[in-house]
Amino acid sequence: IESPLVFGHVRACSMSGNAESTVGVQLIGRVSEENCHPFKRGRYTFMHNGGVPSFTRIRRNMLRQFRDEVFDSMEGTTDSEHIFGLFLNELDDFHTQQDPATIVTALKNSFKRLICLSRELGCLIPMSLNVAVTDGKTVVATRYRNSRQQQPPSLYYAAAESFHCCPKVGMVAANPCTASTTSGSNASLSIGTRSRSASSEQGAAAGGGSSPVPVPSLYRQGSASASGGGGGGGRLTAEALAHN
Predict the structure, then answer these.
(1) Are 178 and 200 in contact (CB under 8 A)?
(2) Does the keyword Kinase apply (predicted)?
(3) Which of 1, 8, 142, 157 is the residue whose CA sits 20 to 30 A from 234?
């Protein structure tokens, strides 16, 4: 298998508490292929690490937001796919190429709409929205939790000319690559790119802080790979990494 852009999402089953208690948890959706990340609609591929508390309560209101084309495209029952639906609903056409700024704006607006729907039903438990979405050319990744006290899951990235799968080692870069992780109360999203030429840019870190207010988007040209992990911190940052 060879591709200039690969999304892989390996994790345990989705779990979520309800708005009244974080002790009792329930499965979000059955174990099925339809509920597996990444999700694909039109030009867009989407994966999510996190959870939407009381999703079963707000799911109906989420579905009401969708125009017919988006509603009819829903195949599974997870909170993640429904977040994807909110994102697709912000795009005029999810079958055509969009510029990076349009993708960033659509993702930010989908987060705002989700948070508003949750608050309208009195769901006050913070939600984690570590998301990666791509149209095959542009990748937008976020690391976000709408809380001033609790931190979102960490976010890792690696960038290189190419990656190869080794049976006993896993995925390795064909050449030196940039790699970083975000963690701690003041971290948000680390970024790094590598162009398809021999030259490369060093990784950079977006501003941190605990305020759940969106910060300006950052853009870099090149190719990259991103994945999610454990605990971390920060506010919403959207990063577009566009292939040359």
Answers:
(1) yes
(2) no
(3) 8
Q: How many residues does the chain have?
A: 244
Token reading at 77? 């029952």
Q: Look at phi and psi of residue 122 and say left if phi exceeds 0, alpha if psi is from -120 to 50, else beta.
A: left
Tens place of pLDDT per residue across the chain (244 aa): 677 787 877 665 545 444 333 333 344 556 667 778 788 888 999 999 888 988 988 999 999 999 999 999 888 888 999 999 999 999 999 998 899 999 999 999 999 999 999 999 888 889 999 999 999 888 999 999 988 888 888 887 777 777 677 766 555 545 444 444 444 333 333 222 222 322 222 222 222 333 333 322 333 333 334 444 433 333 333 333 333 2
pTM value is 0.65
| DSSP class per residue in the chain | ---S----------EE--SS-SSS-EESS-SSGGGPSSEEETTEEEEEEEE-TTHHHHHHHHHHHS-HHHHHH--S--HHHHHHHHHHHTSS-TTS---HHHHHHHHHHHHHHHHHHHHHTT--S--EEEEEEESSSEEEEE--BS-SSSPPEEEEEEE-S-EEEETTTEEEESS--EEEEE-STT---EE--B-SSS-B---EE----S-------EEEESB-EEEEEEE------EEEEE--
> What would the two tokens of residue 33 be?
């292929």
Please answer whether residues 89 and 70 qualify as being in contact, where contact means their C-beta atoms are separated by less than 8 angstroms: yes
